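During the no-cost extension, the postdoctoral fellow (Dr. R.K.) reprocessed legacy sequence entries with the updated structure-token encoder. One reprocessed record is reproduced below for audit purposes.
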Amino acid sequence: MSYLACLNLDIRAAKELGMVDSYHWHKRTWDLFDSDSDSKRDFLHRLESTERNFKLWILGKRLPKCPDWCDSQSFFVKEIPNSFLTHKRYSFDLVANPTKAVLNKEGANNDKKRGKRVPLVKEDDLRNWLIRKGEARSLDSNHNPVSGGFRIIDSVPLEIRPMVESHFKKGSHSAYHGGVRFRGCLEVTDKERFAESYFSGIGGAKGFGFGLMLLAPIKLIN
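Re-encoded structure tokens follow.
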């Protein structure tokens, strides 16, 4: 079984709780689960905000509960039926952290080594990044590309919002992630791989609220 939950919290209440950036929300998401200190993160979350409130989405295979800092009337959870991921096409809404690795200078053996990751900002680069995530999400143990199980449908416009910086502090360390919102339609090419992509998330910085894809099945008329 799997679940999708949604939590609404007034911005003023969030500030009183010290939930002022993505790192603090990252820690607070654990309050929705019964877990011990050794538990590994096995869920995705996504934070949206307006002038008045925050909306937190949670996706995972454990049943989330309403935390004590949220009104039960502002918390909703539904079970995702197994049939939900059997459709051929979906509209999607994804906030991801698209990055690329910058190569360092050549070493003694003229080998270029991967350096830090930097955010992608150009629209063509972002579009190609998402296409690659569907066609080859990662590498397997033999370094062969593993499909993400989907392709972007070209006949439907792909909306790509400008990158937004999400700054946070962890102790004395300050950093940020670049978030980009994609909205469009996709077609499933491999149901098993697509299900893995859905539950594991798209791109990096998943613990900080990126990678969760909201889906709605659709039928396209050719």
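Residues 84-217 form a domain with the Alpha-Beta Plaits fold (CATH 3.30.70.1210). The chain has two domains: 2-80, 84-217. The remaining legacy entries will be reprocessed before the final report is submitted.
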